[in-house]
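Moderator note: this is an archived Q&A kept for reference. The question asked for a predicted structure of one protein chain; the sequence and the answer are reproduced below.
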Amino acid sequence: MPSAYTILFIIIVIIAILTWIIPAGTYATDKAGNIISGTYKAVSSKPQGIWDVFMAPVIGMVGDKKTEGAISVSLFILVIGGFLGVVNKTDALNEGISSIVRRYKGREKQLIPILMILFAIGGSTYGMGEETIAFYPLLIPVMMGVGFDSLVAVAIALVGTQVGCLASTVNPFATGVASQTLNISPGDGLGSRLLLLIITTAVSIIYVYHYASVIQKDPTKSLIYDQRAEDEKRFAIKTRTDDDHQMTGRQKAVIWLFGLTFVIMILGLIPWTNLNSHWTFFDTFTKWLTGIPFLGNFLGHDMAPLGTWYFNEITMLFLFMSVVIMWVYHMKEGEFMDAFMKGMADFLSVAIIVAVARGIQVVMNNGMITGTVLHWGEVGLHGLSQSVFIILTYIFYIPMSFLIPSTSGLAAATMGIIGPLGHFAHVSGSLVITAYQAASGWVNLITPTSGIVMGALAIAHVNVSVWWKWMLKLMIYLFIVTCVFLGVAAVL
């Protein structure tokens, strides 16, 4: 198999070729940018050429009028790399991993359901995705250290979060955007989505747990056994798991700061006031804090309260905590900069993959074929029974999720069309949202257009074809479960 970059570039070329074949079209939009159903019209063809193909990754990074750039995500990944470089310089992670391996000796598999449930909650509540990039360098050594492989580590975070997104409960970037488009409350359908979350998370945990059990008994059954020796060297497994040294006081402080950083990140990303309009404690506290004479000026009056953060804020968090760790560990400035820059260099390929993946969306949007594909769906889904309509809606959203991997972008682009069609088929708007979310989460488990998938695999050094092979059965299980769930929910 070619590299991830080559696969993505081939897809960009294929999409560019399709812009010569698929008629161009567009929809009228309202002031909020939502597509207005029934307003599709054909426009002059805008086929994408060689210039556009090679410009796609560039625009994918910096963005243009039609497509948001990936620069904020890529910069976050680079700073995460720098942060981890500084933490690794203290050797605190190595000692911490050794401690976890020793503590869970004999009950290693307990880590799998605990961690997957936590990641699923993150995906379901605030669309946790790109943020997991920071966890893989920690999870991979731990999972390999207790006898599993890097596939298990990737699955814990990637499958966990994307199954959470599949059954998003109050995710503002999926449930929130889609509900706003249909003018319904994000709480509509919450009960059924919670049930779907429990079912799909349980199926996923059983699948990962079974694979982990098999390779723990016989490591040769691992799909990446041929690279295990290289992975053990690459991730310093022996050093991290055989070390019996006790952590120093400074290393313990670094571990606490490391954990605190992720806690703050999660608190910052969960949209508290969207979950409950009365949960304004972080807004109130930040307003009080910045209003204190001198201290407010010292901290900065533009400080954003927890719950309103996005990539700019969490990037700043990891940069700030890198400096804090430098001071706590008494690291020299030269050592700090060297460790930070080397850490960024290690994550450069991951940051670039995100931009190249975004290039696919650039070619679609600039080639003016996104509207036409949506129109085909609008025509094809009209006039069907409830169960058939909702299952076909789910199936329709599968290729659409491949073409538009952004959950919020997909909701904004399509919900104004599919939602009204559901009304004509007597299917509730909340169930249409569930179908869209389920398809998006399902596709984003494997799609090479997702920077989350390609970034995770790049860190783990797992070929995407191996990931597809490993995920095949789980994808089938999740597809069947979701179809049955939607079909039954439509007639209840």
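Archived answer notes: The chain has 24 helices and two strands.
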